[in-house]
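Quick board copy: two proteins, each given as sequence then tokens.
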Amino acid sequence: MQHLAIDCPYQNRLSALADVLICYGMGAKTIVFCQTKSDANNLILTDKIKQDIEVMHGDINQNQREVTMKRFKEGKF
């Protein structure tokens, strides 16, 4: 398991994250923690991240969160 922290300007965070996922995340399961639900939702909407991703937070019903975790464990995204 590897943890990575990179300091970058706020406005460059999505581009930096996309680059990190390409360099370090290919073929691996990766979890990205966000400060807010809105930040998590913005990851889904950005065109900078090319990998298949799903989002989980408290506004998503429990059943869907369980489905998302199951799919993550199975490597479906």
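And the next:
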Amino acid sequence: MKILYITGSMPYGTGEAFLIAEVRELIRLGHEVVIIPRSPGRRAVHGRDLLTFTRREGLLSWRVIAIALRQCLAAPAKAAAAVRPIWRSGRWNVMLKNLAVIPKAFWLAEFARRVGADHIHCHWAGTTATMALVASRLTNIPWSLTAHRSDIVGNNLLETKARSAAFVRFISEDGRAMARALGMTCGATVRTLHMGVAIPVSANSKRPGNHVVLCPADFLPIKGHEYLIQAWVRLRTRGLRGELWLAGEGPLARRLQRLVRSLNIGDSVKFLGRLEHEALLQFYAAGLVSVVALPSVDLGDGSHEGIPVALMEAMSFGIPVIATNTGGIPELVIEGTGLLVPPADPNALADAIETALGDETRWEQLGRCGRSRVIDAFGVARIAAELAGWLETAGREAIRSMCEAAIQDA
């Protein structure tokens, strides 16, 4: 099956590393996958092996503009019909965002026809889904989307897209509930299928001699780093020896660095910058990390975590995880598979870290149960196979519909 897999920028740019395992598995299953980033960055940071399977085209390149103009001039009525849903939002900010991707949508339609694509699947329910929606209307190639979290909150024609798509995949039940609250009612096409991770052959079975608590998250308000730093101060006061590693980038980096200096804990806190995805996994494989902590907070209005792949990856290596009971995290970290604490609570964070590190038997139990949890419910092999089955079903249904239409016209 030839699948056009639409991303925001992956494999270019610094984000969306959580998509890599799924694409690799679809390719391993024998599908012909072409990755098309909506807005490709200048360089590939993660998943460089996927560049071979990627078609890079700028959002508003001269080629995109030329193809869009040619299609509009050749078939103006069809072009107008394809973009008609965009005017229904009634929100100028949404319409402007969508208009910016219309030329790329026409380019995508021509590319899909030229390569004989069977299906268009996109990640994010925002402008990437707008591209796929318009391209599908221009070509009659079935399309589908995976919705995450912030894109649901943005409500960029969610209901319209759900009615047009072969299916809408949510990565968490929490995200699905958010969409229902925003008025999405297309129950038959709406499904939940988590993101998945590749399962390493073996797990870490021995706790590192030097305690290392790692937080692999960009420095954004939703990630709650300040509470982890405050928890680390409490742990140092209690006599815990070790290091806190913060791996990421973002607008709060300098503020957090100043906080560390003001608390006089700079000797035990390391800012690692943004790690390449493979480098992060090597940390886990080498047994350098004792605990992974993600102190996420809920900012209201749906601004909270989905189900973080960062936690899944650590758990797959048998590394205990500590997180907050926000968003979709409780769908991953169930009882015995990690430790959940209330958000914005440094004392609870400190207690949980101390619990995980203070007893080697407890550490081993958390790691073992966490790994079993990911193997059972979040292994990418099973998840990609299920997704591929949905895509194949959508293709068969599209062929049947075309045949029925042809018979009626005859």
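Board note added afterward: The first helix runs from residue 20 to 28.
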